[in-house]
Amino acid sequence: MVFYNKMIKVCGTLLIVSILFGCSSGDNFDPKTAEIVGEEKAELTLPPNVPPPIDRDHATKLVVNMEVTEEEKRLADGVTYTMWTFGGEVPGKFIRAREGDMIEFHLQNHPDNKLPHNIDLHAVNGPGGGAESTFTAPGRETVFTFRALNPGLYVYHCATAPVGMHIANGMYGLILIEPAEGLSEVDQEYYVMQSEFYTEGDYGERGLQPFDMDRAIKEDPEYVVFNGSVGSTTGDNAITSNPGDDVRLFVGNGGPNLTSSFHVIGEIFDRVHYEGGDRIQKNVQTTSVPAGGSAIVEFETEVPGDYILVDHAIFRAFNKGALATLSVSGEEDENIYTGQQLEQVYQPEGGAVQTIPQEKREEPAAQTIEERIERGKSVYSSVCQSCHMKDGSGIEGAFPPVAKSDYLNENPDRGISAIVHGLSGEITVNGETYDGVMPRQNLTNEEVANVTTYLLNSFDNEGGRVTPEDVERVREEGPIE
Ligand code: HEC
Ligand SMILES: [Cu+2]
Q1: What superfamily does domain 31-184 belong to in CATH?
Q2: Apex CA 316: angle with CA 427 and CA 189, to 5°?
Q3: DSSP of 322-381
Q4: Would you tell me how many other CB atoms lie within 10 Å of the CB of residue 389?
Q5: Fewer CB within a 10 Å sphere, N or C end of the chain?
Q6: What is the spatial distance between Cα 30 and Cα 34, in angstroms, rounded to a whole number?
Q7: In the CATH hierarchy, which top-level class contains the domain 189-328?
Q8: Looking at the predicted structure, is the pLDDT value of residue 55 above 60?
């Protein structure tokens, strides 16, 4: 304390010293008593966008208008859900304020809504985080004011009973209280928030899906997503940067139940404000973001390519939707990453063995097409399903659909070739472009014939039959472009 007072004195009297020692007006800034200068209307943004950094050097009265809506929205392709939103989207609009600001919060419940709602902002010091003051019936508006005392990244959510259901239906978002001295300058800032959906239908089941309370209580979601839907932030909607840029992600987790193991495939977080607070951890691979919590993640993107944001509880990523894409475009840098330098036959026995031995598995050949389809189905579920999904729909932006696939139906040999030779490079399936890598599958001719026959006769494909002789022929002819 004595030392602190002394520092202020030194800083105040010796400007040069104060610059050297990094003193700033922030050192004796008290958010409780900071003078409120002027008034502003807060600019709110929908995900993945973030309002611009605050360039004020004083506290102000900040007016926030947040409208609650209840509307049917896309959860996945062919799947919709009645979402309850803060500001028209899930997650809700991003709020950016400065430490010391006096925030006048207006909660507006749209007259077409059916239910009352309120808001608990974790950035508030006061009962219910504002929930008690903002209980609002449809067609009504409530107002309360709070002082932003603690800088950090905070979750807000609806806290109207049943609270779990209001959150599960989409009522959460992020509010950033910038420290008085501001955050470091970066090239891009994005808003990414994870959450779960508990639907009556299984993953991918089409139509408007009602909320399933039993699944929610068991914490067994069908969907785990970033920014409100499967594929919200992939393909044309991917977030972007360029090599050499500093990227800052404001990461939130609305839950309602699961903790996220937040990870970006192919990147290391240079700095993490873990739990959205002051402390910085450096050089982090995966950071925990608890339900109702956050993290600020910063890293430089060095090398061009697609970087996939995942919950590294990995079945959530590949089977429940928790995938987003950061697309980095620009110059390669082989000093940092070369890309593949070699791909060749691996011969553990040395040069004497010229081919990889085909493991001979005991299996009598299928006699009928029904038998083929039946056996092909079990190959599919043990080998292919993890990427192409149980219903063959694939994953937007990553794995093409094998359901109703024009690419496959046009020439079934392409399917055989993908399995026995692998497949990479750009292909177009049902109008969407994919540029992924399907590894060569180590299956017998019989198994490939079965699984391809199964594919052709399932998932709305056009039928057909493939024999082990067809597979042998495609093996010999080499990959089909
Ligand atoms: C590790 C993930 C993965 C696995 C496992 C996998 N695939 Fe693929 N598959 C892909 C990717 C990625 C592509 C697209 C490759 C590209 O973009 O060039 C693809 C493409 C295909 C295609 C052509 C495109 C289309 O959608 O019609 C077929 C057919 C296919 N796979 C069938 C299968 C079958 C059958 C199996 C199981 C024996 C299987 N795949 C296993 C990832 C996978
Ligand atoms: Cu609510």
Answers
A1: Cupredoxins -  blue copper proteins (2.60.40.420)
A2: 80
A3: -EEEEEE-S---TTT-----------TT-TT--SPPPP----PPP-SHHHHHHHHHHHII
A4: 20
A5: N
A6: 6
A7: mainly beta
A8: yes
Tens digit of each residue's pLDDT (9 = 90 or more) over 344-381: 777 666 544 444 444 555 567 889 999 999 999 989 98
Query: Rounded distance, CA 157 to CA 155, Å?
Result: 7
Q: Give the span between the Cα atoms of 172 and 250, in whole angstroms.
A: 14
Whether the CB-CB separation of 89 and 47 falls below 8 Å is answered with: yes
Q: Ligand 1: residues within 6 Å at CB?
A: 383-384, 386-388, 399-402, 405, 407-408, 415, 418-419, 423-425, 427, 429, 434-439, 441, 451, 455
How far is ligand 2, taken at its centre, from the CA of residue 162, in Å? 9
CA dihedral for 376, 377, 381, 382, sign (positive or negative): negative
Cβ contact 193:173 at 8 Å: yes
- At residue 319's C-alpha, the angle toward residues 226 and 263, to 5°, is 50
Separation between Cα atoms, residue 97 and residue 128, nearest integer Å:
20
Name the one residue in this structure whose structure tokens are 């899906």. 209
Q: How many whole angstroms separate alpha carbon 245 and alpha carbon 270?
A: 12
Q: Do 437 and 400 touch, CB atoms closer than 8 A?
A: no
Domains 31-184 and 369-477 share a fold: no
DSSP 234: S
Atom 39 in ligand 1: which residue has the minimum CA distance? Answer: 384
Q: Which atom of ligand 1 is nearest to the CA of 451?
A: 35
What's the whole-model pTM score?
0.69
Average pLDDT over residues 50-55: 97
Query: What are phi and psi for residue 126, nearest 5 degrees?
Result: 165, 160
Beta strand 59-76 pairing with 36-41: parallel
The ranges assigned to domains in the chain are 1-30, 31-184, 189-328, 369-477
Find the mean pLDDT for residues 289-317: 96
Cβ atoms within 10 Å of 100's Cβ, excluding its own: 24
- Range 46-62 burial, b when 16+ CB lie within 10 A, else e: bbbebbebbebeebbeb
Peptide bond into 116 cis (omega under 30): no
Nearest of 202, 188, 225, 231 to residue 49 by alpha carbon: 188
Residue 29 one-letter amino acid = F
